[in-house]
Amino acid sequence: MCGNEAMAEAAIIAGCDAYFGYPITPQNEVTAYMARRMSEEGRVFVQCESELAAINMVFGAAATGKRAMTSSSSPGISLMQEGISYLAGAQLPSVIVNIMRGGPGLGNIAPSQGDYFQATRGGGHGDYRTIVLAPSSVQEFADIMSLAFDLADIYRNPVLVLADGILGQMIEPVVLDKKPGRKLPAKDWALTGAKNRKQNIVRSLWLKEGALEELNYELERKYKQVEENEVLCEQYEVDNAEIVVVAYGVAARIVRSAVDKARQQGIKVGWFRPITLWPFPHEKISAAAEQLRVFLTVEMSLGQMVEDVKLAVAGKCPVMFYGRAGGGVPTVEQVLERIAQLWTHTEKLK
Amino acid sequence: MKTVFKRTKTYKDVPTHYCPGCGHGIAHRLVAEAIDELDIRERTIGIAPVGCAVLAYDYLDVDMVEVAHGRAPAVATGMKRTNPDKIIFSYQGDGDLAAIGTGEIMHAAHRGERITVIFINNAIFGMTGGQMAPTTLIGQITATTPQGREVASTGYPLQICELLSILPGAIYLERCGLHKPGQIRKAKQAVRHAFELQVNNAPGLSLVELLSPCPTGWRVSPPDALKWIEDEMIGVFPLGCFKDYQPKD
Prior knowledge:
A: five-stranded mixed β-sheet; B: alpha/beta; 9 helices
């Protein structure tokens, strides 16, 4: 299956009650797949008039306690930012999948990682965070959907799954099965009709003096819990490395091949892949920085995650960057060349 | 002693925050009475707009949500599709529904969403300080049309009922005034009918447009506001039923 379809089926397995979408390349397989499968399952599929409507339909379904999701690609995700801010403010669980393409503007339909800032810095207005998950294979793309819905429910927060055009289109073998989920809190806040209880109100407007600030602190406490409990990353040969390459998503797979080749050449290089982009694995990167000559960050952008790596490293060692943008994909050879150059250069400085 | 009139259950017994002479209080009560008469309070979910009525949940004792400006019909779609047994209504002003949310109401009607929309037309943006709305009358002075609305640069008043009436998915469209007791009684029937259609699962969207006084925004006294609806607004926004649903047997 292609990544888009595997993810869609995994969302159905994870108990997605409703999918709202609008066609945009390179994620059209999702809307087509959901149109067929959600009706087979007797669940809700709506092709919306815009991404703005889609995210607000997610808002509506989520407010009633249903598991709702949407998917889009970069320009469409931009249009959803208003709704994502409201979802964060109203603390509504929801899942949003971004199959990133080149930008800015209409850009192109080639794979990109240019939306890292938008995903991890909020994107919409106000003081909020979204949990951001970045799978790197079709299998992981599928596996992560159940986690995405669980995290959304547990923390009452929108969860972004950040993939790119390659992962959406790439065909790989995938095992789809229902894994045991996390323990979920009751949705006693949901709008289900005020029967035998007081009226429930889902809101994001807090006009009374100090009320919004109190909400912001409440959100902050929640975000701290997420940072403490939900960081995910994968690493390889980091413990004995002198150079570590950091990359996420599909770029991490290219980097992994380059790291293997560099190791064969005797270069002491390791590989680090954040799976949660927010919360970012600051602590592990910070710990690794103690022993390293240099970090190299590789992205399919002109340098976005590298800022988080620098924040984590906090000057303990240099952080270099290699990236390609606008649909350009770094090759194994290009990454290998950068690793070898850094190795030679830092060898001389020793 | 016989009780001939009392506050309806769904309408909370609280002081109002609306300005003197505002129509929202009347419109809220019509909604509350319809909900109670149809006995649907325990399965109704309301959507408050952005505007003066954003605090509608302080008055209406049903489950309610606040949403982004104009997006209520999309939110309602998400709610109704996942909860077909619930009664979903949005309550929207003319800035909300006829300006920023024109796309959402048009497409909710176009898809025939089985929801109820209460549309408050007061020909102005009330909460933000009396700016021009798409429904503002020609010549009407507002904060953003200080010389009076003129066609050349701002177009004509937008007639939502007329616009929606060509869509098969909009099954009930009626415009009423909140400026006279007799008209308010008609408005009550219309609001109730709009809910009743949804209760009966009629196949489409119902919308009641209520011409509503905004003395503060219009810079007139409450009695003059009522007179202005009669003398000026009705000429541009004629009252009446534009479309009703006829069940086939």
